[in-house]
Amino acid sequence: MFLVTGATGGIGRRVVRLLRAQEMSVRSFVRLTSHYNELEHRNSDIFIGDLRQEGDIQKACRGVEYIISTHGSASDTLAVDYRANIELIDQAKANGVQHFVFISVLGADRGYEDAPVFKAKRAVEKYLQTSGLNYTILRPSGLASNLLPLAERFRETGLYLLIGDYKNRTSIVSTDDLARMIVDSVTIPAVRNQILPVGGPEILTREDIPRIFGRVFNKEPIIINPPLFLVDGLRGALGLFNPQAQNALGTFRTLLANEFFCNSEEIANLEMIFRFKLETLENFLRRYLAV
Ligand SMILES: NC(=O)c1ccc[n+]([C@@H]2O[C@H](COP(=O)([O-])OP(=O)(O)OC[C@H]3O[C@@H](n4cnc5c(N)ncnc54)[C@H](OP(=O)(O)O)[C@@H]3O)[C@@H](O)[C@H]2O)c1
Known about the structure:
Elements: E1 2-5, H1 12-21, E2 26-30, H2 37-41, E3 45-48, H3 54-61, E4 66-69, H4 77-94, E5 99-103, H5 116-129, E6 135-140, H6 148-157, E7 159-161, E8 169-170, H7 175-185, E9 194-198, E10 204-205, H8 208-217, E11 222-224, H9 229-239, H10 243-257, H11 264-274, H12 281-289
Parallel strand pairs: 1-2, 1-4, 2-3, 4-5, 5-6, 6-9, 7-11
Antiparallel strand pairs: 8-10
The structure holds NADP nicotinamide-adenine-dinucleotide phosphate.
């Protein structure tokens, strides 16, 4: 039995789909408010709970052999990104879990001081590495599925909001490719007890993204490019009445201000280990947007 957390998220729902396509038994950890119909239709067990509750994690882990942690939070980093994963690791040990797959983030080890999610991911990575469990830690760059709503907006308006330096490099990974790597991680010996950076096959600059949208929709992009200090201004103002949102914006700012890409050796390594060709962003968008 696989336990998948974040099973209604961009990565998690694809992981459940793949596992069920292989007729694996899956328990999807979902919230009562989540959209989990699709998972039920695929005959996944549905465990309704909240990852902020230790008791829910304990119950969800009973009898599972594999844990795939794909959940993430918009703002409750301490409880969801950090504590819930520590509890999942403890419960994995208590239940004799055979393999734990953790989705971290590219750059988790760079020591970004002002980015709580990056710090939580690194702390969880370290805890997992010393847990004695078999594990695989995948550190993805940006996910292609996150760009789908932006692409839909672009289709209607031709507008693309690009905050900060448009020359910064990124390697957007197909969320379907990432899901496949996650599922294969439990059976490929080469990735046992490894940390792998995960990106797409091309190094893009951030301004390449609206250009790709432009090609996909045959529309000239109108790029709106406010400077990064606008985010700093917003953070400062938010800090006066909502410190949690101010912290979350620290992670957002870190993502905007830095480069997140895999080099060609890292990509070749992924393709060699997992034995498939990684999909380009343009291909991913054309598949999902039916153009
Ligand atoms: N997005 C990126 O570009 C990117 C890049 C690198 C790494 N990552 C990492 O990849 C992972 C997945 O990203 P994603 O984009 O697939 O995430 P996502 O679509 O935002 O999904 C987050 C998932 O976590 C669940 N969740 C949040 N709080 C919860 C709670 N208290 N109890 C139970 N479930 C809870 C959500 O449930 P609901 O459906 O109920 O909201 C959802 O299923 C995250 O760990 C993220 O940090 C993402």
